[in-house]
Each structure stands twice: as structure tokens, then as C-alpha cells.
């Protein structure tokens, strides 16, 4: 069965510093990986996805993610964090290529302090 | 704005009651997914519909049911409500195609008292 894991419940970063939110995956076949962000009392917003191709994926709001097949990881990164990036981040994997449900990690709370 | 609309935004109801949550997917999206988000369980997949047909079922209780109508909107029915059903319920829609992204509505916050 497909699954993702987010090993950190919380990540604390100072504004202006780089940030990384970790995600590892376990899939059979090719992985279809996603990152979503959830602000308080809001729905999930799509950030970026990896389907195939370049291992570095660029997304919304300056975020990017690095797909690493050998380490089965898909970490979310940003070179310079903003206080407004503080939110709950979810990694997800499609359980089948064509329209299968998304399976989510437990989420990582990112806190960026001024 | 994701293009997915959920109503109502908030719902407060008593134990034992029945409620219906509604979702309008993005224009053209044939797949609709329902998720439950609670503090202790995270984001749990409930059920998926594709063009009116049930496609996948997750950990959905027998007290819960859903359907997708010919105009592609979907409804999630929750009955015999218990305190533990209090949660955020999200609907998402997705187009057909490998690796297509899913887009989420703002959710319905259900409080059972």
C-alpha cells in the first residue's frame, strides 16, 4: 500500500532562514507526490507535485521540493522563510496513477518567528 | 479560490441527528473525494466518486453515506451523529489524468453537542 510519513510534528525556523519540511514515501510503482498547505480555518491549498522528470520541482509562494528516489524522500524547501509561511503542511501520495485518492501524512506544523 | 464550494461552512447539531454536507466540484472535474480531519486522526479519506459512481471507499462509518449527482455535485450524509463525529469535513475534486492534482474546498466544520 502507498504511504507517506512526515517525521516531524513541528518545525521552527527564524524568518529569512531556509526551511525544510521532511517527507518520506513508500510506494509500489512510480510515485505521484504532492505538497499541500493549510492555514488556520482554511482548506488545503495545492503547492506543488512530482509526477516525473526533473527531481527539483518548483511550486507556489517560492516553495520547491526535491524528489530523491534512492532515499524515497520528497522534502519541501524554501530558501528564505517568511512569517506568513507559518501553517500546517501535508505531504501526500496518489494511491493509483489515474485519479486515485490522495493519502496524506500526519502533517507538519511550521512556525516561522520574526 | 480553489473552485470547489462546500456548504455550509459551519454546522452545530445535537447527538442523534442527521446532517447533509454539500460539495460543488470545479467545473469539468469528474472525481469528488470526501475527507475527515480531526485532531487525533489527521486527514482521513472517506469516499470517492467518479462521474456518479462510487470508486473507492475508505474508513467511512456505516452511519455515513454519500452520492454524486448527474450535475457532479456531491452530498455527504451523516446520521445518528455522535460527539466523536465533530470534525472538519473536506471535499476535493480532481480532473481525469495521470498525476492530476486535487483541489480542496474550504471545508465544513461540524460540531456535535
Protein described:
The complex is a heterodimer of chains A (114) and B (113). Chain A has 114 residues and is an all-beta fold. Helices cover 0% and strands 51% of the residues of chain A. Chain A is built from no helices and 12 strands. In chain A, strands 2, 5, 6, 10, 11 and 12 form a 6-stranded mixed sheet that branches. Chain A has a 4-stranded antiparallel sheet with strand order 3-9-8-7, with no helix packed on it. Chain B is an all-beta fold and 113 residues long. In chain B, β7 (64-68) and β8 form a beta hairpin. In chain B, the strands form 2 sheets. In chain B, strands 2, 4, 5, 6, 9, 10 and 11 form a 7-stranded mixed sheet that branches. The mean pLDDT of chain B is 94. At the A-B interface, β6 and β11 of A face β5, β9 and β10 of B.
Keywords:
heterodimer; A: 114 residues; mainly beta; 6-stranded mixed beta sheet; 4-stranded antiparallel beta sheet; globular; B: 113 residues; 11 strands; 0% helix
Most extensive interface, chain pair and sizes:
A-B, 25 and 28 residues
Please report the distance between the alpha carbons of the first and last residues of chain A.
41 Å
- Quaternary state reads heterodimer
The gyration radius over C-alpha positions of chain A equals 13 Å
β-sheet strand percentage of chain B: over 45%
Q: What would the principal axes of the Cα set say about the shape of chain A? A: globular
- Main pleated sheet of chain A: 6 strands, mixed
Instruction: Count helical runs of chain A.
Output: 0
How is the secondary structure organized here?
The complex is a heterodimer of chains A (114) and B (113).
Chain A: E1 3-5, E2 10-14, E3 19-21, E4 24-26, E5 33-38, E6 44-50, E7 56-58, E8 64-68, E9 73-78, E10 87-94, E11 102-104, E12 108-113
Parallel strand pairs in A: 2-12
Antiparallel strand pairs in A: 1-4, 3-9, 5-6, 5-10, 7-8, 8-9, 10-11, 10-12
Chain B: E1 5-7, E2 10-13, E3 19-24, E4 31-38, E5 42-50, E6 53-57, E7 64-68, E8 74-78, E9 87-94, E10 103-104, E11 108-112
Parallel strand pairs in B: 2-11
Antiparallel strand pairs in B: 1-3, 3-8, 4-5, 4-9, 5-6, 7-8, 9-10, 9-11
